[in-house]
Amino acid sequence: MGKRYFRRLKYLIGDLLASVFLTSFTLIFYCFSLKTLIHISKILGRIAFSFFKRYRERVIGNLLIAFGKEKTPEEIRRLAREVSFHLVLTLLETIYAYRNSYERFFSKIKIEGKEFLDSALAQGNGVIALGAHLGSFTLLGARLALEGYPFNLIINESNFPRMWKILNGRQKRLGQNPYPLNPVTSSIKKSLNCLHRNEILYLVADEQQRRRGIPTLFFGQTAFTPPGPAILSVKANAPILPMFMVRENGVKRRLIIGNPISIERTVNEKKDIEMLTVKFTKVIEEVVRQYPSQWTWLNRRWKLPPPMEGPGKLDSLDRGGKKV
């Protein structure tokens, strides 16, 4: 009871501080240019790398798992410093973007592969946009909404309701439609409905899912991956398109839309879901390899599931399980 109370108190305090931070920094950022924001992120990134030992060691540990045979310890440490910079920049640029003029900021972001999106939407079953915590991923939806695409995304707001209320309000003003993960049955229904309306559904699927995750190879190690994109793709017959917004030299951004991720469908729906999950995990790995400093590296991606939770069990998800 005591641990639960203090955990809840920690989230309440964190939620309050995050809300104050968002509100106050939105006003402060009216004085900043984007280039100034880059310099601030570099300074704060160095501070975070130096003083937050727990997170620094987690990032370095994950980088060693992924690149330990390819890079020297010094190269790993240098890459971890760059990761800290991009982590800070993701937070600050999100606030910066939301305070700026809609078209002034987002119209400068180039889109590559728009033809894949238009072709997929022409099928009439909606599109599942496969994302990752990489680069300027928080700005992706606003850029597509500016082009007139109906854009939906699921938010896990259970721990920080105040903060997400502020962010969701800003996302809606930028043409996006966020809705909460919980209750899960409701979020699944909304997800299927938006696909049936031939809209875009954005799902970030690069974190470890300890319960009901599907075992896939990620940088050569077994990682349990959320199968939500694959399940919805099979259920709604909606194509999965990888979408990532990457940074070039910190300032320029590109929204890259890739070829649809597809498989040969069989009569075994469960097997199809597993194959799709393995395939889209490989796509995420490829883009992380290309932009390693822009992925967060904070998630315990290779942590094993708890006992009695066998790999690849999809039954609860098919009925509206924990995570999509």
Question: Can you walk through the features of this model?
Answer:
With 324 residues, this protein is of the alpha/beta class. The protein has one domain (2-318). 52% of the residues lie in helices and 15% in strands. It is built from 12 helices and 9 strands. It has helices at residues 2-28, 34-51, 53-67, 73-99, 102-106, 114-121, 140-146, 161-173, 184-196, 228-236, 269-290, 315-318, and strands at residues 110-112, 127-131, 151-155, 176-180, 200-204, 214-218, 221-225, 240-248, 252-257. A 7-stranded mixed sheet has the order 1-9-8-2-5-3-4, with helices on both faces. A hairpin with a 2-residue loop joins strand 6 (214-218) and strand 7 (221-225). Helix 1 crosses helix 4 and helix 3 (53-67) packs across helix 4. The model is unreliable at 309-324 (pLDDT under 50).
Question: Which properties best describe this structure?
Answer:
disordered C terminus, 12 helices, alpha/beta, seven-stranded mixed β-sheet, 324 residues
What's the SSE blueprint?
Elements: H1 2-28, H2 34-51, H3 53-67, H4 73-99, H5 102-106, E1 110-112, H6 114-121, E2 127-131, H7 140-146, E3 151-155, H8 161-173, E4 176-180, H9 184-196, E5 200-204, E6 214-218, E7 221-225, H10 228-236, E8 240-248, E9 252-257, H11 269-290, H12 315-318
Parallel strand pairs: 1-9, 2-5, 2-8, 3-4, 3-5
Antiparallel strand pairs: 6-7, 8-9
Helix pairs in contact: 1-4, 1-8, 2-4, 3-4, 10-11
